[in-house]
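Notebook, bench 3.
Goal today: get a predicted structure for Nudix hydrolase domain-containing protein from Aquilegia coerulea so we can plan the truncation constructs. The sequence was checked against the plasmid map this morning, with no discrepancies at the termini. Length recorded as 270 residues. Pasting the sequence as submitted so the record is complete.
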Amino acid sequence: MSKSPIQNIPKSLIHFHYKPKFLSFFNFFSTAAISISLHHQYPFHFYQFLKNPIMLPSKANSFSTPESLFHWLKPRLPSDSFESWGMKPGTKNIHNLWLELSQGESSINVDSAIASPIRTVHVVTVKILNQNRGVLIEAQQELSDGTFRERFRPLSEKMKPGEDVEIAVIRAVKEELGSIIQGDIGSIVRIVPGSYEKKVEEKESSVSYPGLPCCYVLHSVEACVDGLPNEDFCTEEEGEYEECSDVKVADKAVFVKKHFWKWVEASTST
C-alpha cells in the first residue's frame, strides 16, 4: 500500500489544529481535509500543496522527427491554417509542436478513426497580486522571429510530466520573471491559501497552432511575489528549450525572447 502524501512530510513540520490560520491541504484521494501549517526559515510562510503530481503524458513521442509529425498532420488539418504555422505573426511552427510532444508538455491523439487531431496540454496559471489589489498581466510577447503577439493574461506555463502545481508555479516564475527578480525564487513566492482551481477549456484552434483543436487543463492559483516593480516592466525568457537534446530542432523553433508586463485592476483581469 502506497503512503499518503502526509506521511512523507517530516513530523517536526506538521501541526494539526481545528481552525487553521494558514493553509488547508487537500488530499485528492480522500474526502477528509487535514489542516497543516508548515514552518520554514523564510521571512514569510511559503504554502505548499499536498496534491499528487499532475499526470501528464510521458516523454514518449509517437513521431520520430518533426517531418513525420508534419506529414501526419497535413491531411488532417485545414490546409490554409496549417500552412500559416510559423508564417503568420504570433504563431509557432512544426518544430515547436514536436518539441512539446518530445518533452511531454503536450499530447496529441493518434487515433486514425478521429478526423481531427486534438492537442491536450496542462497549464499552470499564476495570478500574481500586489498590495494595491492589482493583478500582473502579460500584455504581449516578443518572439525570436521578430514578431509580437498579444496575450493579456496572467503568467502561464505548460506543465511538465509528473510536475505538481507548486513546483510548476516556482518554475514558471523563474523562467518568465527571473531576469528581474533578485534572490531565491522559492523564498519570495507565496501562494494564496485556498486559491487553487482546476478547469478544462476546449478550443477549436489556438493562436500558436491555427486549425489544431486544443484541450487546455488549467491549474490556477493566486500568489504574491516579492521584488517586482510597481510600474510596467519587461523581462527576458529563461530556460525555454535549454533541456532539449536535439539542438538542430530547437534552433528551428520559434521561442519567446521577451515578456511585457503591466499591473491592472483585478476586475479587468478576468
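The chain has a mean pLDDT of 79. The chain has one domain: 66-239+250-264.
Flagging this for group meeting.
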